[in-house]
Amino acid sequence: MHGPASLGWLLVALCAATGAYCLLRMRSSVEEQRRAAGGEALMGFGMAAMAVPAAVFTPPSWTWPLYATLFGAATLRALWAARSAPHHLHHLVGTAAMVYMALAMTASPGHRHHVHGVPGVPLVTGLLLIYFTGYVLLSGIRLVPDAGAASTGTVVGWGDRLELARACRLSMGIGMVAMLLTL
Fold it and tell me: What pTM was estimated for this model as a whole?
């Protein structure tokens, strides 16, 4: 990641912690939550790996095509899931954004963590920034508790709590915005 090392390390910590929490969410008794948590764990750890500051570690040139292939497969899986469940469209956009960033890193001169002169990069980056900024704002609003909601009294395991899953998605959205800004 191009930018201040402290920002990079904070992003690595945020994304890795989110990925770890999503792995724990995979123990849910609800199958749909387990599937979503698995995809989100992949995104969290992938974002953490991509966010390591370039001043500390410059990955070998084969890393970016590997990321593109891995997230390309995840994009196909998200596309397959989105045909029957439209709420998977966000996963589709997220994995496609990861493919885009990996390809942008592959196409950049010297495989550095910056992209100059690659056609279409500012337009696609701008569209992704608009999408993820909107997603972050909407996710933040969804975390505000509804004062009129009544408690059902049902005890839910911490891995099945909707507000924690939303906070996880919010943190990954913030991470995606930060990564796109440094692209």
Answer: 0.81
Q: Does a structural domain hold residue 63?
A: yes
- pLDDT tens for 162-179 read 778 888 889 999 999 998
CA distance 143 to 4: 30
154 belongs to a structural domain? no
Residue 33 lies in a domain: yes
Number of domains in the chain: 1
The DSSP string of 114-149 is: ---S-TTHHHHHHHHHHHHHHHHHHHHHHHS--TTP
- Residue given tokens 């899931």 in the structure block: 81
Q: Could you tell me the CA-to-CA distances from 64 to 23, 71, 120, 178 in Å, in that order?
A: 24, 11, 19, 19
